Structures are given as structure tokens and as C-alpha cells.
User: What shape does this take?
Amino acid sequence: MSPKDTIFSAPIDKIGDFTFDERVVEVFPDMIQRSVPGYSNIISAIGMLAERFVKPNTQVYDLGCSLGAATLSIRRHIQQEGCNIIAVDNSHAMVERCKLHVNAYRSDTPVEVIEADIRDIEISNASMVVLNFTLQFLSPEDRYSLLEKIYAGLRPGGILIVSEKFVFNNESAHELLIDLHHDFKRANGYSELEISQKRSAIENVMLPDSIELHKERFAKLGFSSFEVWFQCFNFGSMFAIK
Assistant: This one.
């Protein structure tokens, strides 16, 4: 069982930007379950999508893999031979813990865990690429070029999964969904202090996009179909098929 997330439980004089350091890695499973509505459903469904879309002798990329939850879900569901999963994260602490998780389960599908900037990774012969709450942490000007590289490296019929926190153009709807998310965190035991301090730490690091902007980029890149397949409050996941 993961240790409980208490990182923001005491008052912090000067709140710095949120980083995926050793402290976060220790409590990450608890943090993500109590902070991201629907996270377990998304992880489970990524595995189901892998079963449907991963083809023999192709590559699968989990970009921003954190502790490897999506990677392990994909590997459990792959039915095809000759596949290889490449899991990438730029946090040394995350990568080291991800390797332990991956090595704890035997499988015929090999996983290569790489510590690197996902913008530097070559994408080739891919039948599936996953950006599970990753794109929102890239600078906005780098997002399209990464998606462009992913599109070029996807085989026809390949799928891209993009899970994100969303912003909404309608101000009252946007505020309501934020309030519901905060209610979700309160229901999971976070205090007002924790909610406030975490929001301050992450607001300069995570810059979400609207669903409309995601769809505009998918259309411009040439994906044949794309849609939101899961949403809970202001969190969700989209697919784009080449």
C-alpha cells in the first residue's frame, strides 16, 4: 500500500513549483488516486484499447510513464507477438521506481524504461502511443511539434491516447467543474490547506488546454478520427486514430 500523501499538509512559507521528486514518488499512487477523478478507469481502459489496437511486431510508447501504471496495463492486455513497450520519463526518481514495478511482473512483452525528455524520443513503427497526463506539463509551444512527431511515427490505424486536465471556454461551467474537483479532493481527505497549496505549486507547471484545442490539433495533423472517450469533472482522456 502506498504511503499517504501529506506533502502539502503543513503550512509552507514559500511554495515552489511542483516537481516529480523522490517525495512525490513515495506517495504518488495515493496522490493520483485521491486527486485525479477516474484515474483507475482510464488506466484499465488503456489496457483494453491496447488489446484492440496494438499490432504484431510494433512499438508502444508510454511518454511520461511515471511509475508505469499505463505501461503495465498495456502489457497485461497485449495479445500480439513481437511487440516492445518503450516507457519514458524525465524524472530520475520515477524511472528508478518504474523499473522496479516493471521487473516485478514477468511477461513475454519486453519493456524498456528510459530516463529522457519525451521531446527527444524518436517515435517509429508505433501502433499505440500514450500521453497519460503528460502533455499538460510541456510548454504550450512544444505540444504541437511533439504530436506531429507522434503522428509521423504512428502506423496507419495506430492510436494516440491523450489524458489531460481540461479548461473550458464557458466561465461558469469551468468554475463549477473546478469546484466539483475540489469537492472530490475533500471527499478523499484533503484539507483546504492541502488543496490551496497544491494548486499554488502546480499552477505555473501544469497549463491545461481546452478539448476544442486538442481536437483542432488532431484535425490539423490529419488523424482520421478523434474524440473524448472518458471525462469526469475537468479531467478526461481522448483518443486519436491515424
